[in-house]
Amino acid sequence: MGHRRVHVPQAELTAQGGLYSLLVRGEGVRTVGSISRAHAGAERERWLADLAAPEVAVVTLTVTEAAYRVPRAGEDSAISRLVAGLRARFRGAAAPITLVPCDNVPDNGAVLRSVLRAAVAGEGAALAAWVEAGVSIASTVVDRITPATTAADVRAVHELTGVRDAVPVVTEPYAEWLLAGDFPGDRPGWERAGARFVDSVDDYQRRKLWLLNGAHSLLAYAGLGRGRSSVREAMDDAVLTGLVESWWDTVARHLPLPTAELDEYRAALRRRFEAPAIEHRLRQIAVDGSQKIPARILPVLHRERAAGRLPEAAVAVLAAWIAHLRDGDVHDPMSAALVPAARSGARGVLTALDTDLTSDDELIAAIDAETPTTTASEQP
């Protein structure tokens, strides 16, 4: 994927006065000092007080695709916490606020609005009306590979700076942040750090989801099946890189962007994927496939099938995903349904994922023919 949630232990960040090191591979280390204070998620009263404060004008969210659902009664989730915070704001200052989702969900602003609208439906008409009128939601595209920080990274920061930072963040040089939406209150001057404000992020969002994130899912499932462990290793495999190029050729037919711009983006992706200093683990990318594949692969597949084509790369990634589901090391919110379905083949999996594809006999047969009977981790 292009952007990762960075888990920062609150106590360690607080002990460092909110400062942390940003290690940019190939460019060095800089200190980030924009965090004034950090709080653990369990500090509910602090959260409610902050959201009620009129000087708080923006809330950014970085969550997984699986988090975008209406919470059950009594459930502690990102959306339930957000609703509680907005309720506190409504009862207090009721000042306008902007929510900025920063994740890989297609149309993330519209998705968040829909989930939030449903989540407050039982909270009373007054709160629901204020959420509609007083809560603005931006849409974004965020793209920067930030693999999990390792002990070696902590040592590298110390060697480069002499600072013992317990919570450094490691990233690649490339960065893109596009935003579209209204900010009725104040906001940081993000454009001074490279962010771009645009009228619509739709085409850019599809470009990133299909070209970058789609290729990542392809490399993750097919790469694990071929014994690779990282994106960089997978890009050393001619079979895998051939599939990636085939996938990009397929996607390009459905993106209304200039050819030169797409070619430049593809070239940048190759450089990023092949970068030896970034160790992006395939197992990390492979989690939550049921939430990622419908956004990254299936929209293009539907368009291709409507045109009468059977794209080899889409077939390959679905076959490799089914093999991954049979592997046993599966982290997915739908694993209880998908793992047994995978044993019966593509039709069972697609029934749980996208019923419109389950009657496509040609596609089902192609996926089943490509699905290996064992994965690399199952082989002796």
Which terms summarize this structure?
three-stranded parallel sheet; mainly alpha; disordered C terminus; three-stranded mixed sheet; disordered N terminus; N-(1-d-carboxylethyl)-l-norvaline Dehydrogenase, domain 2; 2 domains; Rossmann fold; 380 residues
Show the helix and strand layout.
Layout: H1 10-15, E1 20-24, E2 28-32, H2 44-52, E3 58-61, H3 78-91, E4 97-101, H4 108-119, H5 125-134, E5 135-137, E6 139-143, H6 151-161, E7 169-171, E8 176-180, E9 196-197, H7 202-225, H8 231-234, H9 238-252, H10 259-274, H11 282-286, H12 289-296, H13 298-306, H14 312-325, H15 335-343, H16 346-353, H17 361-370
Could you walk me through the main structural features you see in this protein, from its secondary elements to its overall organization?
The protein is mainly alpha-helical and 380 residues long. It folds into 2 domains: 10-197, Rossmann fold (3-Layer(aba) Sandwich), CATH 3.40.50.720; 202-378, N-(1-d-carboxylethyl)-l-norvaline Dehydrogenase, domain 2 (Orthogonal Bundle). It has helices at residues 10-15, 44-52, 78-91, 108-119, 125-134, 151-161, 202-225, 231-234, 238-252, 259-274, 282-286, 289-296, 298-306, 312-325, 335-343, 346-353, 361-370, and strands at residues 20-24, 28-32, 58-61, 97-101, 135-137, 139-143, 169-171, 176-180, 196-197. The protein has a 3-stranded mixed β-sheet, with helices on one face. Strands 3-4-5 form a 3-stranded parallel β-sheet. It has a 3-stranded mixed β-sheet with strand order 6-8-9. Helix 7 packs antiparallel against helix 9 and helix 9 crosses helix 14 (312-325). The chain starts with 9 loop residues before the first helix and ends in a 10-residue tail after the last helix. The relative contact order is 0.10. Residues 1-6 and 375-380 have low confidence and may be disordered.
